[in-house]
Amino acid sequence: MPTSFNQSVIDEFRANGGKVGGPFEGGDLLLLTTTGARSGREHTTPLGYVRHEGLLLIVASAAGAPHHPAWYHNLLAHPVVRVELGTEGFEAVAVPAEGDRRTELFAHVVRAEPGYGEYQRNTTRPLPVVVLERSDPPADAPREIRTVADKLLEVHAWLRAQLDHVRAEATAHFAARSAHTGPGTPPAPGLGLQLRQHCLAFCESLEFHHISEDTHVFPALAERHPHLADAFARLRAEHATVTRVNGELLTLLADLATADPAHFLTELDRMTEELRAHLAFEEQTILPLLAEIRLPTAP
């Protein structure tokens, strides 16, 4: 089967440290890997990018086509993406800008790359501007990852930080909405796309983490340490509880326009309480066991 044009660009990009020839020669190019909204499979797309005040921006232009490109629908469904920039690769949370923020960022994009203005004139849909927010480990994560215990602490630190970030963002978002409705008027429903993307990234990462533990980590440790059977039973039960709360949050995220702020904050508080207690007990129980497993030899 002949190699597609996109695949030839991807191969050249990876073979030459991010440099390519042809129509992209000399341009700012990155590779974006998203998870298929329907298929669940990974898809990599070469895209131009623009920097602005420390932000990394991409535009879902599709050269001015009438419909959004597939990669944009993918990142709405699964906000955690993989970015390759030069010789560097990292995970990011993809957050489309909204309202005045989108207008401001798109104006900067057009000043930097006027071709996007032409693409916008060719279509009636507003071209989405997506901010790629790098998902680095938080400051309290281990600086060196040598054992499986270090890796677990890094993941837990990221989950705690993301949960705190979502909670602060939700509080600010709903306070701002309430302030614009006037005295005596209940705040309008709705979550906002930025809050949705961050919360969805957290929910999906948490689900993946717990499935990995239930499928691989806990069975292996339980076999080696049968005297901790009751502890592993408790951990699995706590996973089930957190999964139910996670499912409720995902249901609320499914419809931005009608989501009830009070219900969302209640479920978010419940998630915070359940997850923090679970992570503390898990660290107390299995960190000493995982500290004995060096990463190069871990299964």
TrEMBL record:
Entries under Gene3D superfamilies matching the protein: Electron Transport, Fmn-binding Protein, Chain A (2.30.110.10), nmb1532 protein domain like (1.20.120.520)
Record GO terms (molecular function): coenzyme F420 binding; oxidoreductase activity
Annotated InterPro entries: F420H2_quin_Rdtase (IPR004378), Hemerythrin-like (IPR012312), Split_barrel_FMN-bd (IPR012349)
GO cellular component, one term: plasma membrane
All copies of domain Hemerythrin-like, residue ranges: 149-290
Source organism, top-level taxon: Bacteria
Catalytic activity of the protein: oxidized coenzyme F420-(gamma-L-Glu)(n) + a quinol + H(+) = reduced coenzyme F420-(gamma-L-Glu)(n) + a quinone
One Pfam family named in its UniProt record: F420H2_quin_red
NCBIfam families: hi_GC_TIGR00026
Family as reported in the entry's similarity comment: Belongs to the F420H(2)-dependent quinone reductase family.
Name assigned to this protein: Cation-binding protein
Organism: Streptomyces purpureus
